[in-house]
């Protein structure tokens, strides 16, 4: 199994009707093949034993689908071994090849977040301070794992990152903040209420509404009417 074999499998599934749909979430000059996401995930599962060096070569490919497949493979490879530092380091070192929000969302919780369970969390603060919106999205998307599998200390660390990004002007970032808060608030409603008390005035209203999607209606009315 090599990166070239995986690229060939993706190209064999090219569907011209899918290309316009794919292009809507890409930069104008970003190359794409045009594949149904279900088929891309099928290829990633088939390639889930791809050696780490070949995953990096897949990240070097120009097309969105090849790089999306690479992050899917990373996510699949760590599902039974959360805390894999080699795959986390590849994600961080080649973050420049992660060019869309859905690449972040696919891999950041397990690949980036897994090794951070129990701390330390400095890498999240470094990402949150980045000039790159997608790195900032990684910073707040990784803690989604903390909501599901982390300790109270992990969850608190996620809220610290959310505090740093609460007023972020980029939709690709502040929407991810809202998603984290929505799930974190379901686990710890009092923490969400305290967070909103401190930050709701500076957050986009759409983010406040997203954060409260799973909240009790009486709580929602307090913040969004």
UniProtKB/TrEMBL annotation:
Entry protein name: DNA alkylation repair protein
Pfam families the UniProt entry points to: DNA_alkylation
Organism: Desertihabitans brevis
Top-rank lineage group of the source organism: Bacteria
InterPro entries named in the record: ARM-type_fold, DNA_alkylation
